[in-house]
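Re: the 100-residue chain
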Amino acid sequence: MRPNQMQNPKGNQAYAVIRELSEEEAARLREESYLKFQRDMWSRLEGARREDFVQGQEESFSEWLTNVIRNIARKDLSPAEIADLIDMSPVQIETILRDS
C-alpha cells in the first residue's frame, strides 16, 4: 500500500480505475496482436497455396505441351513444321524433343 493511499480515498479510487483500464488495454492489445498474427499466418499460408497451385499448373502445362510436341513429331514433321503449328521457334521444339 502506498503511504498516501490512506489519506486520499478519491485518489485511491482513481488509481484503481486507471490500473483496471491499463489491464483492460493490455488485454485488448494482446488480443489484437494475436488476431493480427493469425491473419498474417493465414495470408502467408494462402499465398503459399496459390504459388503451389500456379506452379502445378505451369508444370502440368509444360508436361502437356511436351507430350503434344512428341506426338506431332511422331507424324514425321520437322521441328520447323511443328514450330509453325504451335507458334514456337524451331530451336525450342528441338530442345523439347532432345530433353524429353
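The chain is about 85% helix and 0% strand.
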